Amino acid sequence: MSSGFNILCTKLEQTLALRQEKGRLIDPPSPAKLQEMADFSSNDSLSLSSSGALTRAFLNQLKKHPNFTIGSTSSRILDGTKQYLLDLERDIAKFHGAEAAVFFNSGYDANVAVWSTIPQSGDIVVYDEYVHASIHDGMRRGRADTIAFKHNDSHALGLCLEKIQKENAGIAKGTRVVFIALESFYSMDGDAVAATQLLEVAHKTLPRKNFIFSIDEAHSNGLIGPKGSGFICHHGLENQFPIRLQTCGKGMGSSGATLLCNETIKFTLLNYARGVIFSTAPTFLTAAAVRAGYDLIASDEGENRRRRLQENISRFYRKLTSHAKWSEVKSKGVLYLPTEETWHLGPFQSPIVAVIPQSKLAADLGNYLAESGYWVNTVHFPIVPNDMDRIRIVLHTDNTAEQIDRVVELIMEWAVMQIRPRQAAAKL
């Protein structure tokens, strides 16, 4: 190897060592280890993948199309757009009440394509400060100016829009567009978007109506709404959100993502989005798995799985917040639950629950759970804000009542142990 390569590796090793020293090194667990543990981590929230239900539905798709080919053979702009893929896009658009749909290899690819391509020079993208990293990466490549507003705060959005209107003649005159980027369920806090309030603010603040709302439904697709059609369909807001992203790698159990839009936006992406033009098109196998997932969520089994998931989410919250030690643990700042005040208010909740321990102890809590056979995500800065490291719990349809009760007990055991050393120190 050249000396240059050795120098590079040395620098990278130093960077990784520094991250490990700070307790933030990402080291994925082995599949063998995960097989032995109860899953409170994966995004397979409906348990479609882990239960084998999606496999069976996928194999049925293969039987219906015995002459399928493995590869897509090309980019979508050449001969990679097969009829099966076009039919899937048509049916997904209809399922979600949209004019058109365009399928991507991942939600990340879709967000980068949209935000680097669709907003034009002179437009402005206003985004919730907690939107996904893929939206940020797309905006960095785009031509529009960008500005964040405080998470899920309609008043903050109003102030932001007022400022934009005062400082930008094109926005004030209605010749330029304000894009407002949101998520349905936010991936780290697990809270739901205040969609209705944010819409009301935009309508009030921008009288020329020169705004476009976009939403990433990664964590609501398949989980809520008529036949699992998502957050926006549940609230009947399809006409208010002309750009919607429905990913398939979370509740749907497979991979890929579909952007819901109109024909103009679809063909703009096919013509200008570099990730579309220079990537191999999705294969039949990917598309068939997605088709199988949609068949499942629209069925009676899908409805049953959604019901059981919500029951499990409610059980977790109820057991945790009614625990005999919860008030003490909370008052002493050992644990913080961002969704404690809202989880019981609506007909459904996100399967994501953020449990935020006192500073620097998230990894310790995560390890405590892992030692007892319960796998959760431990999330550190910069994925979440500094001093907001957490364990990110994902509830699943197939989690048992016993597993849920036990993971709550383990969390509280750990929390009580954090109080006792303080009490002992206070007596000295």
Q: What report would you give on this structure?
A:
InterPro entries: Aminotransferase_I/II_large (IPR004839), AON_synthase_class-II (IPR050087), PyrdxlP-dep_Trfase (IPR015424), PyrdxlP-dep_Trfase_major (IPR015421), PyrdxlP-dep_Trfase_small (IPR015422). Keywords: Pyridoxal phosphate, Transferase. This protein is of the alpha/beta class. It has 2 domains: 29-50 and 306-427, Aspartate Aminotransferase, domain 1 (Alpha-Beta Complex), CATH 3.90.1150; 68-297, Type I PLP-dependent aspartate aminotransferase-like (Major domain) (Aspartate Aminotransferase, domain 2), CATH 3.40.640. The protein has 17 helices and 13 strands. The chain has helices spanning 3-21, 31-35, 53-64, 83-95, 107-117, 133-141, 154-167, 169-173, 195-205, 231-235, 263-272, 274-277, 284-297, 300-321, 326-331, 362-371, 401-427, and strands at residues 38-39, 100-104, 124-128, 145-149, 178-183, 211-216, 243-247, 257-261, 335-336, 352-357, 374-375, 377-379, 390-394. It has a 7-stranded mixed sheet with strand order 2-8-7-6-5-3-4. The protein has a 4-stranded antiparallel sheet with strand order 9-10-13-12, covered by helices on one side. A two-stranded parallel sheet has the order 1-11. β5, α9 and β6 form a beta-alpha-beta unit. The chain is globular, with a radius of gyration of 23 Å. The relative contact order is 0.14. The mean pLDDT is 95.
